[in-house]
What we know:
There is one protein chain. This protein is mainly alpha-helical. It has one domain (28-142). The chain has six helices and no strands. Helix 2 (30-52) packs antiparallel against helix 3 (57-79).
Amino acid sequence: MIPTRTFVLWLAAVVFALAGCGGGSKAMTKAEYQSQLAKSGQAVTLAGQQLGKSVTVSDFDGAVAGLQTALRDSEKKLNGLEPPANARAANEHLALAFGDLADALESVKAADTLAKARQALGRVGESAAIKNGQTAIGELSRLGYAVDSAGP
């Protein structure tokens, strides 16, 4: 049987070890956060550019699916970040806007002609997801973050 004192010391060592292993994640620096914003923004921008290159409904649907994937990946990435304290709320709003925009794009894939698909895309451009993303980007910009290509 383990003596009480040995057990208490062992327990204390385990608690201290666990406290040092990811228990308290460290917030990113402003530069680190801006770098992650830029990477997410670039991925979404590149995927979005494929929409303009589509010449068939099938191509367009594939480009929409690619954009949805980029948006959802960026949403997950942003949700997994520990941004500086002053950017946390705007980061959450931007991540949510990415996910909402990916969902809103689903309606675009229902079009049976390229013209209808582009019209549906135009309606998505007026969606709450776009407005919420723009608001989040505006807030990050007001806080001094470089967000030239961060989102919708």
